[in-house]
Amino acid sequence: MEQMKQFEGKVALVTGAGSGIGEACALAFAREGAKVVVSDIVGEDADRVLKAIEQAGGTGIEVRSDVSRAMDNEHQVKVAMEAFGRLDIAVNNAGIAGPAALTGDYPLEGWEQVINVNLNGVFYGMRYQIPAMLKSGGGSIINMSSILGQVSFATASAYVAAKHGVVGLSKNAAVEYATQGIRVNSVGPAFIRTPLLTKNLSEEQLEGIATMHPIGRLGTPEEVAELVLWLASDKASFVTGAYYAVDGGYLAR
Ligand code: NAP
C-alpha cells in the first residue's frame, strides 16, 4: 500500500514560486502531496513551475501576483480558497535584492521598492492569509528572511532593514495567533545559488562569497526548502515565533 504523503489534503501558497527558493518549495510541497498555489510576478515562470508539478503527478494552480500590491495578495488567497476551499500553509518568499549603495547615497526609489516587496509584501501576505487560515482551522506561515535579518551587510541597508523587519513581524503575528492554531516562523538562508545571485554577480564573486560560509560553499534552494517543509509540518507543532537559519554556519563565525 502506498504511504500517505505528509501534506496530503493540505493547501500551500508560495509567493515568488517561479524561481529559486520559492520554486524549490513549491515543487517539494507538491511532491509531498499538497495542492500548491504557485504565485509569481512573472506569469510564464509560474506557468513553468505549475507544469513541472503536474508532470510529476501533483496538483496546483498558478496566479500572477505582485506581493507589493495589497490587492494581489487578497486575490491570491481568494484563488486558493475558490480552487481548493482552504489554506493551510503560506510561504511569503518573494523578494528582491535592490540596489547596492552606502546608506548616505542609497537611491530613494530603490529603498521604497525593496521595502515594498520584501517587508510590505510579507505584511500584505499575512494580512489576507491569516483570516483564510482561521477559517481553515489553523495553519503555518513561513516568512523568508535572510542571514541579513540578523546581521548587517554594507551597501544593502534596504535589504537588511526589510529582512530584520520580517523577523519582528513574524514574531508579532506568532504571539497574536498562537492560541488559534496558526504558527508563524521566519527562515534565514545565507547565500543560495539562485537567479537572485547569478543575475547580479560573476562566478568569481560567487566563489569569494562562498568562502564566507564555514561550510565553504553556497547553499542550494532545495536545502532551504527542507527547512521550510519541516516548519510547515506537524513535526514543528511546538515551533512558533522563531527564526531558523539555514546558512552553512555563516552566523556562527
Ligand atoms: P529569485 O530566484 O530571484 O526568486 C524570487 C522570485 O520572486 C522570482 O521569480 C521573482 O521574479 C519573484 N518576485 C520578485 N518580485 C516580486 C514581487 N513583487 N511579487 C511577486 N514575486 C516577485 O530569488 P531567491 O534567491 O529564490 O529568493 C527568494 C527569497 O529568498 C527572497 O525573499 C530573498 O530575499 C530570500 N533570500 C535569498 C537568498 C539568496 O542568496 N538567494 C539568501 C537569503 C534570502 P523576477 O524573476 O521577476 O525577479
Description:
With 253 residues, this protein is of the alpha/beta class. It has one domain: NAD(P)-binding Rossmann-like Domain (Rossmann fold, 3-Layer(aba) Sandwich), CATH 3.40.50.720. It is built from eight helices and seven strands. It has helices at residues 20-31, 43-55, 70-84, 108-136, 157-177, 195-198, 203-210, 221-232; strands spanning 11-15, 35-40, 59-64, 89-92, 139-144, 182-189, 243-246. The chain has a seven-stranded parallel β-sheet, sandwiched between helices. α2 (43-55) links the parallel β2 (35-40) and β3 (59-64). The protein is globular and about 50 Å long. The mean pLDDT is 98. The structure holds NADP nicotinamide-adenine-dinucleotide phosphate. NADP nicotinamide-adenine-dinucleotide phosphate (NAP) is lined by residues 15-16, 18-22, 40-42, 45, 65-68, 93-96, 117, 144, 146, 189, 191-192, 194-197.
Draw up the topology in text.
Elements: E1 11-15, H1 20-31, E2 35-40, H2 43-55, E3 59-64, H3 70-84, E4 89-92, H4 108-136, E5 139-144, H5 157-177, E6 182-189, H6 195-198, H7 203-210, H8 221-232, E7 243-246
Parallel strand pairs: 1-2, 1-4, 2-3, 4-5, 5-6, 6-7
Helix pairs in contact: 1-8, 3-4, 4-5
Bound molecules: NADP nicotinamide-adenine-dinucleotide phosphate.
Summary, kept brief:
The chain has 253 residues and is an alpha/beta fold. 45% of the residues lie in helices and 15% in strands.
Structure ligands: NADP nicotinamide-adenine-dinucleotide phosphate
Q: First CA to last CA: what distance?
A: 47 Å
SSE order in H/E notation?
EHEHEHEHEHEHHHE
Content of β-strand: 15-25%
Largest beta sheet: strand ordering: 3-2-1-4-5-6-7
Radius of gyration from the alpha-carbon trace, in angstroms: 17 Å
Task: Assign a percent range to the helix content.
Answer: 40-55%
CATH superfamily: NAD(P)-binding Rossmann-like Domain
